Each structure stands twice: as C-alpha cells, then as structure tokens.
Amino acid sequence: MMLKRFLAVLVAVVTVMMSVTLHIFRDQVFVLSEFIRLDKHEELQGRSVSPRVNIERPQGTSTQPQAATEESIGQVLKKRVEHLAQVCRRPGVKHSGFLDIGTVGLTTPFRVCVVPKGGSTAWRAYMNTLKHIPKSQDYPKILVARHPLARLASVYRDKFLEGYPLFAFNKTFKKITGSRQRWNTRWTSYWLPALIHKGLVNPSPDFFEYLTKKVVDDNNLRNGTQKLLKVSKLRILDTAVRSWYSNAEHIKLMRRFYNASFSMIDFLEHVLWTRDLGMEDRHWAPVNELCKTCVTDYKFILHLENPEETKYVLNPLHLHKTTVPRRHISLGTSQELSDLRYYENVPKGLMIKIIDMYKMDLELFGYDKDCI
C-alpha cells in the first residue's frame, strides 16, 4: 500500500516537472521563432525600403585654423594642449571622469583615448595592427576629439537610423553599414528606452525606482570599486530595460512599434533625458568625461576632422606605414551635405541645452559651437 502511494506521488511529481519544463521550452521556442520571424520580415521590408547609404566624412570646424605644413600643424597641436591646460586650471572646472573600460582606452603600444562615434572603430583596427610592438613610456598619450554636434549626428544616423522606421534595420542595412548588432540589441539598448522617454511605453514606478537606486553619487567616488560602479552607470538603463520586461512583453512591444521612427528632435531630447538620469550612453557621453581629460597628461589632442594631425603625430613614431582608416559607413541621404542639416529644425531652447551639455568639450578641444 505504501509502495503504491509512493509511486503515485512520484508519478505526480515527475508529471509536474515535465509540464514545467515543457512550458519553459515552449516559451523559449516562441521567443526564438519570433526573432526569426522578425529577421525574415526585415529581409522582406529591406526589398521595398532601401535607405541610401553614404561614406561618412568626419566633419567639424575648429576655432583654430587647419594647418597645411608640418610646422604649422605642430604649432596648432601645441597651442591646443596649452589651451586645454589653461581651461583645466580654471576655478570650478570638474577634474573627474572615467575611462569606459574596454571601449575607449587603447593601450597597445601607446595610450589613445578615442570615444565611440569619435573614430574608435578605425583606431581600434589600427592599434590591432601594432600588437607586436611592446608598450613604451616613451610613446605619447593621445586623445582624439570630434565636434560634439557632428558626433551626435553620427549617432543619430547609425543607432536611430536617421529617422527611418525601425524595420529598416535589416540584413541589407547591416551588410552595407558593417553593423554587427542584432535587432533586439538595438531594441533594448536604444529604441525601447527612447520609447519610454517619449511616453509611448509606460513602465511602472518601480522601474524608475530601480534606476534611482542604481545611480552612484559622484561625490562618493573615493575608490576603485566605486569608480567601476560609476562606469556601470552607462549600462544601467540598458540592463533595466532587458530585465524589467519579460520575453513575451518584449515581443509584444516589438510588434507594436516595428514601424516606429525617431526624429532628430526625439533623439536630442532622449540624450538630455539620459543625461538627467545620470545614465547617458557612451556613444554620446562627453569626451572630456570619458577620457578624464583634466587629470591625464595628454601630449596630443587630435581632431578627427583633420587627418593630417594624425600623420604628423605618427610619423616620428615610425608607425605611419599602417594608415589609420578614415572612412566609416553610416546611414545618410547625401555625402555632400553638412551635419549641420540635422539641426535645422531643432528648437532654439533644445539646442541651447545640447550646447550646454557639451560646452566643456567645445571649450577644451577648441571647437566652434556654431559650425560643424
């Protein structure tokens, strides 16, 4: 009798476990099938929507003249470093910042700080060709800057598809632009947070409470561990979005907003929103904060817009035989038009806030806020 009861209980337990396992398996298969379906839909949409693609030319206007000779280039670079040191000595200038580990700090064979959308892909590829060269203290520390407004335009072209519907981010687009990100990665990292900011997706109050708890007060950054937490702030929003919504909720929202798009105004307001949360993405966080500009002894401050400066710096190091790639493929409507066109319809009040966010980058690196 006892044996029969035991066997009955055992059968019941096994049945429940199999049911739960099957349910989980079906859920995972459903999610996987949805991503496959979306990917196939991308291909179909890609046949009817063919965004024009341009080879992005680094643009930006410096307050210092472009140099034509090695001597004048040297003078420009010297004055730029002197100007930076001068600004950093001013009362009230923040001397903090952090390197986004693994993203902007390139150290083989010398140290280069170059941020996302500031030439990082090209420089990383270049530095990989120099892996065989030992590190040396004799090599200078280099910072590569880009006009903040041109950098923002580049982020908008790439991450927010220059205003095209989200379904335009298909295999054709990725093949042309060289993007390796998956559709659902873009969704959780950029598009869903932007939809939340626009009020099109309403998270519960607990969502923002979670974000608030994760924010680290700058004034408490006294040791290495806390600095790493400061770095992690750049990824908290992405992490929250990924974990807060279930797979089924993500799929439902993806279907609902698959045809959504973002204007330049939407994008700039989103940038300011992430800034207010203290969680701006590293693709638009100010260069001076990412590269610890005022606490690092940079020998050269290079402008991405002037490739002659890079040649000037690399020539004495005998590292110029491998050319630093200049071109970056990104979504755009024309090669000839300036990045300034993206700001033509931006309200003055919004533009003032954006300029204020990047005022230190403009000042430290010698850029004109009115010209890009």
TrEMBL record:
Subcellular location: Golgi apparatus membrane
Keywords: Carbohydrate metabolism, Glycoprotein, Golgi apparatus, Membrane, Signal-anchor, Transferase, Transmembrane, Transmembrane helix
Record's bilayer topology term: Single-pass type II membrane protein
InterPro entries: Carb_sulfotrans_8-10, Sulfotransferase
Location of region: Disordered: 47-68
Biased composition (Polar residues): 59-68
Coiled coil regions, renumbered to chain: none
Any one Gene Ontology molecular-function term assigned to this protein's record: sulfotransferase activity
GO biological process: carbohydrate biosynthetic process
Gene Ontology CC annotations of this record: Golgi membrane
Enzyme Commission (EC) number: 2.8.2.-
Protein known as: Carbohydrate sulfotransferase
Source species of the chain: Homarus americanus (American lobster)
